[in-house]
Design goal:
The complex is a heterodimer of chains A (about 120) and B (about 140). Chain A is α/β, with parallel strands linked by helices and about 120 residues long. In chain A, about 35% of the residues lie in helices and about 20% in strands. Chain A has five helices and five strands. In chain B, strands 1-2-3-5-4 form a five-stranded antiparallel β-sheet, with helices on one face. The chains are: A alpha/beta (about 120), B alpha+beta (about 140).
Chain lengths: ~120, ~140
């Protein structure tokens, strides 16, 4: 799945990283708790979150994630968008809620990509 | 500690949560520039990030020293916070003394130390109540 597919499926607005629309996304993680995100290394992942602060971007950057989707119509401030630009991460916002957004992407073929050992 | 190689030093301010993680981000950039393999970079970055967050949440900031040689990366995180009363308990997944405010910021799920152990090849915690904590993380450099 590509970032532009995520944008289409979630009817999302792209806020930063329009140049990454053709980047492939292999797995996804939906959480507001960043340590839970950090617990599972994934490749080329998207983070779906309602956490609206710089730590969401910083966590994604640590994990080499390629895209962050903010749910429930949340629009991040400039500091967050700047941090995303700096780290080469695409940022999207969708009006869907977390559960729905994750479900829609899962239905379209994206999965969690790892299992708890 | 005597590691022949590179040494980087960072001061982590304790009063600004939004800045927490900036040192780890800077270290990650350096490791990438050095051309280390992505897995090694990620392991060290995530461990260090969790440690840096802990420093800000629990200890009012501190200092980070990173030593890099041909075989390994060693990060030493030093703080003068309250110390950890029971390290074994603190290592349990889900156990946390973080405030509701910190949880609202996306941390304090009790995964910090477990994640640091998971991603580092060696983790050493030296803590004295009322004096502070020194955490040493070691990650071997993959080929």
């Amino acid at each position: 799945m590509l970032i532009k597919d995520i944008q289409r499926i979630l009817d999302a607005q792209i806020l930063v990283g329009g140049e990454f629309l053709d980047t492939e996304v292999r797995t996804a993680c939906g959480s507001d708790m960043m340590s839970d995100v950090l617990a599972f290394v994934k490749d080329q992942a998207v983070l779906i979150t309602g956490l609206l602060n710089q730590q969401a971007i910083r966590t994604a950057a640590m994990m080499d994630m390629v895209c962050v989707v903010f749910v429930r119509g949340k629009v991040p401030g400039n500091d967050i968008l700047e941090a995303a630009k700096e780290n080469g991460i695409a940022v999207l916002t969708t009006t869907h809620r977390m559960f729905t957004a994750c479900g829609m992407l899962y239905e379209a073929g994206l999965n969690g990509g790892c299992h708890i050992k | 500690m005597s590691v022949n190689g590179l040494h980087y030093h960072y001061v982590v301010p304790g009063d600004d949560f939004t800045r927490a993680g900036m040192a780890s981000n800077a270290v990650k950039k350096i490791l990438k520039q050095l051309g280390l393999d992505p897995e090694t970079v990620r392991k060290l970055s995530i461990s260090l990030f969790e440690g840096e967050i802990n420093m800000v949440i629990h200890a009012g900031g501190g200092e980070i020293d990173v030593y890099i040689d041909d075989e390994k990366i060693v990060a030493v995180l030093t703080d003068h916070g309250p110390g950890i009363a029971d390290i074994e308990l603190a290592m349990q997944e889900g156990w946390s003394t973080a405030s509701e405010q910190v949880r609202g910021l996306g941390f304090g799920a009790g995964m910090g130390l477990p994640n640091m152990k998971k991603y580092s090849d060696e983790l050493e915690i030296d803590s004295t109540l009322g004096k502070g904590t020194t955490v040493t993380l070691k990650v071997k450099i993959g080929k």
